[in-house]
Amino acid sequence: MSLIRYAPAPRSLGEILAPYLAFAAKAFSREATYRMEVFTNVASLVVRLYLMKAVWTSLYAQNAAPAGVPLHAVLTYTVVALLMSLVLEIDGTRAIREKIREGTIATDLMKPISLPLYFFSDGVGMTLLHAILIVPALVLSLVIVRIDVPAPHVLAAFALSFLLGYLVNFLLNFLMNCVAFWTLETFAIQLMVRWVSDLLSGQIVPLIFFPGILQKIVLALPFAAIYSTPLLIYLGRIPPSGYVGAMAAQVGWCVAFAGLSWVVWRAAQKRVVVQGG
Prior knowledge:
By secondary structure, the protein is mainly α. The protein has twelve helices and no strands.
């Protein structure tokens, strides 16, 4: 009598994504419990905006700012960049180094889930809460600064570019935290990368203010794909004819970092196996 083996029925996309949606919902609820931190983030953004407005206003009053970009455009840039930072400064992959220090990463690797997707969904859950914070932060920002609002098609392009920048930022953070598999600690590395990213991503100073060849260099770096590209689309410095090229560069960095992340993650898993026997 022959034995008949039945192959498991293929799972639908909804069944595959269900646990990761649950992880995102849990992260959203967890982040919402820290109400004081939520209010502090909004208050910090308003203070930073007030200080940035004072700095830029003073520079333009002294004719010390770069020519060709009016003050209201720079202030618009500053407001939008700070609102973006509410989302982009969230790092769901920091749990990697915490799990490595605690030693729980080994048991997590045995679970029937993709850990990189878990970290991504956890970060998305936290990000959704901070995205909601953009509404009160925007209202408070408008009390301090009047910003320009572009046409709907520009806003749509900005939103898509912002999403691509979010993916580049996540993959960069993922790579930095994966270093903990070899060093056990990534704080110093992340601090250095964070300083470089803040300057060269265009979060603080528009990259179009850099002179000559230096401007071309910083615009070609992956950091520019995080803040500068969406912001320059918002301001109209990248025209509709340049959308495809600008976003293609962002997609290119996403693919490059995704491939590198896959290689590093595979090597990290082998390291855990060797360490654990």
